[in-house]
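Cross-posting from the modeling subforum.

Setting up a comparison between two proteins and wanted a second pair of eyes on the formatting. Protein 1 (sequence, then structure tokens):
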Amino acid sequence: MNIAREFDLITMGRSSIDLYANDVGAPFVDIKSFAAYVGGSPTNIAVGARRLGLRTAVLTAVGEDPVGDFILNFLTKEGVETKFIPRKPGTRTSAVVLGIEPPDKFPLVYYRDHCADNELSIDDVLRTPIADGRVFEFSGTGLGREPSRSANIFAAEQARAAGATVVLDLDFRPNQWHDARAFGVTVRAVLPLVDLVLGTEDECKAVTLTDPTQVNVTHSQISGARVAGDLAAAVQAMQRRGPKVIVVKRGEKGATVFEAGQPPADVPGFPVEVYNVLGAGDAFAAGFIYGLVKGWDYFKAARMGNAGGAIVVTRHGCANFMAYEDEALKFVAERGGF
């Protein structure tokens, strides 16, 4: 990827203040205190990629409130470009409250009513140099409501026209959609603009969902879902619409790269003791995009993504705990290399 651009990566979508339980292992009702971090999938990815040495910018929106100040202050200190982030009068910056009950219970609650980043507009995109990014990444949640939906699609159009690599992180949050099937309808419509898709197995299957009874959202993991269906069929359906590469994130099992015309390639992960799984997918995306920008093949890029995910699951939060480049490369080298 030798395109000369001002930014290696521009991400677009949600941002939030994330309140993580300090009482690890305690049931949600018994939590006594929280630590405040920055979150939101595209924002996490921009921070993670910046820590790996990429030049990054994020197009999100915040309210005219102290929470917005909190997010902008953190991003500025991290070196992520913030000058394209608008303030939205009459809205509030998003918030998320999270519990931590390892190994498999991580309940979280979104506060996104009158949320600033849902008000991102086409004009906001026009004020952002989308054409100056080598990679443009956006997420499924940003497609959930207008005017954010149209703005995200317009940005993907602009990025594709400029020759950037367009990456869609499926980011399926069932409770952010009025109908789980609407997620699939919307994603299928935007896939012709996308070069590469990142998602979990359940997220990929949600793209072809037609029966709402196939979705099981658990109380302990309200952000996620178990989706019935066939993964291979979902991958093929996506590839027929445009993107030739689908990367399925498998947690501790690593990742699988589905490249059109090639057999699936399993990329091994890194065994670690899990402290908090939240943010692992965003760390994976940051590492994978780092590999794309470096011109690596998909296997090596996914290996770097797996390293980022493995590192962040041993820590308390998301953006604030993303790995740095030297740290991630050393982590891989000490565990068998690429």
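Protein 2 (same layout):
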Amino acid sequence: MFKHLFYISMSLFIILQSCTPSIDSKIDDLVKMYSNKDYFSGVVLYAKDGKIVYNKAFGLSNHEESINNTIETRFNIGSLNKDFTYVLILQLLSEDSLKLDDPIGQYIDDFDDNISKKVTIRHILRHASGFGDYGMHPEYQKNRTKFKTVDDLLKLIVSEPLLFKPGSNRYYSNSGFIVLGKIIENITNKPYADVLQQRIFDPLDMKNTYYSHLDTLTNRATGYIKSATGKLIKTIQFENYATPAGGCYSTTGDLYKFYSALENTDILLTDPHKKIMYVYANPDIKLTWEKIISDESIFNAKAGGFEGFNAMVVEWMVKGEIAIILANYDEPVAEEVGNGVFAIMRNLKPEKPRLPIKQYVYNLLNKDGYDYMSMHFDSLMKSQNYQYEDPWLLNQVGYDLLHENLFEEAIQIFKLNVKRYPKLANPYDSLGEAYMKAGENELAVENYSKSLELDPTNQNAINIIAKLMEKQ
């Protein structure tokens, strides 16, 4: 009797166990929800204990030619390749070729003493150097393809002052990683691309990862941005050369080789130097590598983005789990999918897909009208758990509408931005541009003048005011 009961109990246990969704099926269900709504296009990989459990492609790599994404499709990984630069710096540290607290002037002659003697390698690794973003430099904006090498970009960076005293603040800096790239070149006496190939790509057999020759790269995803109205915009015009700060093309499989080797082997770094990377070179964090890989509360998540692309990696070291998400839709879609996958990894329920934030804002304007939206903007955004902190969001929505000749709607969005940020110059500048394109020159001059009052260095406002005044 008892034997039969035991067998029945075991059978029920096996049946119940087989009905419990596996982690790969949960991930698949999640990604399909995003893909079916056309919020996500790309590849998702999940691995555990050194084995790839899930690696699946969704959507199109090229909409114009109806080419599907595959697990071999190469995506722009944005700032994820800062990790390549980080590893190269730490390899040179392990070889006693540099020290983290060395001033950069010890390796580069280009900067004046105020920078070369005060900014250290550690400052740059921690984004505490005071360097800004070369991508915002007017010369770079004018012609991105002109800047092909580390030296080309360094000329822009040298011409700009620091944003703050080194070590006194933090600001995510692309320019700083260009400086690190130059330090790598000067120490090794080789181009950054060659060092990267020889020290990382070749040892790990990363044959699908490309820093150079991107213009001839095959099996490459095209990037797309979705405007506030939902229009799909190809971003090929924004493409530029890869740098030590970002822009490599890779696959989920190759990135898995990199992060798996970094976490589980000594091929790239030994444990003491891994620890430096995983605590972001912060000397105040006293964790050992052994603690990092044995504490369930410690995980590592990072993201990269470029116009039309978004990438995310999540490592839960103690569980031996890695998730990699590459998308050829604009950020933050890979990050949202990645957060959902990480929730599944922790046996939590992931959030349901949400309408992309710019489309949500535009829908609010259409549905509720300007007055209601203006009065209740924060609560409307909070009700759907959308995160935003600065005027960038409304500015982007406004320009999306402006580019589609929806002048009245663009003006309303820019007016809301001015209302929310009355002490910033840029919202007035954008509102002035919208009025100008709508043919309302008096209001354009009024807003450009207000922008100039708040920022007397705004040469754009000076030039446009002069032209508009001539017409009057």
